Amino acid sequence: MAIKDPWLPDFVARWYDELLSALRLDKDVHYEDISKWTRDHYYAKITYYKLLLEKPNSEAHRLYNYVENSDRGTKVERCLYALMVVNDLFCYVGFRIPRHPSPEWKQIRDFWVDHGNLLRSSVGYLVPREACTCSWGWPLYTPDHELDCYFDYFRRWSPDDTWKYKVEIKVLPASKVSLFPQLQDRLRIAVVPLVSSIKDMNVKSIKDSVPPSYSVTLADPAAIQDAALRALQECAANECDVVVFPELTMTPEIQNALGRQRRKIAQLRPYLIVAGSAHTPAKIKGKKCFHNQSLIFDNEGNSVLKHHKLHKYTMSNREQDRYGFLDALGYLDCCEEMTEQPSSIEIIDTILGRIAVLICEDLSVHKFVERLIEKFAIDLLLVPVLDGMQDNNRWTARYGKRYAEIGAGVVVATSLSLVTQHLKHLKATGKATTSAKPSVGLIVVPHSGALRILESTKHDQPVFIDIPLA
Q1: Phi-psi region of 50 (alpha: psi -120 to 50; beta: other; left: phi over 0)
Q2: Under a CB-based contact definition with an 8 Å cutoff, are residues 465 and 456 in contact?
Q3: Exposed (0-12), middle (13-18) or buried (19+): which is 42, by Cβ within 10 Å?
Q4: pLDDT for residue 2
Q5: Which of 74, 122, 304, 426 is a Cys-bridge partner for 431, taking CB atoms 3.0 to 4.6 Å apart?
Q6: Distance between CA atoms of residues 297 and 274, nearest Å
């Protein structure tokens, strides 16, 4: 299905922004007239609901023409009326919030999941509102109210409209997701445990920094690029939908090579490729720095999402011993060389659901992640890490289960290099069990919390798992 542009949320965003601007200036909004007008047009709005549900694009254009060209009231008042139609439409289709809260957000989220998110075939402007109490009777509009108080069921999020993080929501056009009718009853995910040994990594101490820091780069980028491209080709041959590479196993050049390689692959799959992360030069306010940065490519090889790590990791003396970095890092606790600025995160809407990428330490900042999931209805978190073996009791599994309970699936991919070193350390210290295996990834299924561990002994071969789509 091709999307005609503009779509209903395009118009809603324009009306919302125009009304917000007018409210800030206290201009052209006659609240008593709007309240009476709304009451008088209740049945007309019911007709709009039904038409918008049946023919959302053409009816959105008709409503838009009304806002632009009608002589009823001022244009700002017509914008407010159109927004109220959309708000009441959401109520009409099931976003009913009880007066006494408890599972309000869950009701909205469940409906969103069951019936399809408007954002999955439109630009990324509208999200369901957080839980709020329902106001009975007709609302009293005053210039002193915040704009979001006027609408109980949806909210327009601008990029700077939430806590300390800038959030940008992107949407893949329907033309980019032609493979999804073939998904049928399963989602095939692959992790690629790139880099086989810590000898293939350059771990460097930066002792003159305060506090002490370290960087991770590749000893032989050309060899790793060849391995990554082979793995991607195998993912395509096995009709994999989503591929995740580990943290800090790439360079920017390898990431871009994956995008170029994807453009050469004839198969529709893979649909999304998380190109691990790379120690990436950046410049903030004229100062040279580095991001720990991941890229996502779509099934045409286009970069559709960029995420740089938002929370630094500090490697303790104990962890340096576990992973064989004591000599390189001089037995000092070190934080990774990276900047967390700007504090921003991109979200991508697909027919698969709403997806975000987190990198390693980001996953453990639970207040940030839980708010992200609940506020923006995240369906899937794709998480490159540079960590040891994955199992049911480690931090990635604990947080993955926690987030699955509120609706987000979690996919974690780590490098075989640290997994192998972790196993060696366990054997050397007598802590290894007979069940200890080279587990290089995990997947936690949303809602059920079911956890799958992925194992591999070859860094250039993807590990596949099929997740049933209910």
Answers
A1: alpha
A2: no
A3: exposed
A4: 30
A5: 426
A6: 7
Segments in 238-312 forming alpha helices (H): 252-264
Both tokens assigned to 174? 């329907």
Query: Tell me, what amino acid is at 373?
Result: I
> What are the structure tokens assigned to 447, written together?
């809602």
Q: What's the pLDDT score for residue 38?
A: 55
Tokens of 144: 């002193």
Is 203:214 a contact under the CB 8 Å cutoff?
yes
The amino acid present at 313, given as its one-letter code, is: Y
Write out the two tokens for 178.
Answer: 């032609």
HEC secondary structure over 59-121: HHHHHHHHHHHCCCCCHHHHHHHHHHHHHHHHHHHCCCCCCCCCCHHHHHHHHHHHHCCHHHH
Whose structure tokens read 């037995």?
331
| CA separation for the pair 92, 95 (Å, rounded) | 7
CA–CA distance, 422 with 325 (Å, rounded to integer)? 12
Within 412-466, residue ranges assigned H as helices are 416-428
Q: What pLDDT is stored for residue 431 in this prediction? A: 76
| Cα gap 196→25, rounded to integer Å | 61
Where are the alpha helices (H) located in 94-220, listed in sequence order? 104-115
Buried/exposed code over 393-421 (b: 16+ C-beta within 10 A; e: otherwise): ebebbebbbbbbebbbbbbbbbbbbbbbb
Beta strands in 109-212 (DSSP E): 126-128, 154-156, 166-171, 186-191, 201-206
Q: DSSP assignment, residue 379? A: -
Residues 215/166/358/269 CA torsion (nearest 10 deg): -120
d(CA 467, CA 448) in angstroms, rounded, equals: 12
- Report d(CA 38, CA 302) in Å as an integer: 45
Distance CA 234, CA 170 (A): 28
d(CA 244, CA 277): 10
Q: Check residue 163 and give its pLDDT.
A: 57
Task: Please report which helix (H) or strand (E) contains residue 22, including its range.
Answer: helix 8-25
Q: How much is the pLDDT for 96? A: 44
Rounded Cα–Cα distance for residues 428 and 432 (Å): 8
CA-based nearest residue to 85, from 137, 2, 151: 151
Helix (H) or strand (E) holding 14: helix 8-25
Two structure tokens written together for 426: 């366990």
Reduced to 3 states, what is the DSSP secondary structure of residue 42? helix
Mean pLDDT by 10 residues, the chain (470 residues): 46 73 61 56 60 70 85 80 73 46 41 41 41 36 47 53 60 44 70 95 84 91 97 95 96 97 90 94 90 93 92 90 86 88 81 84 92 78 96 94 90 96 88 78 86 94 84
pLDDT at 170: 61
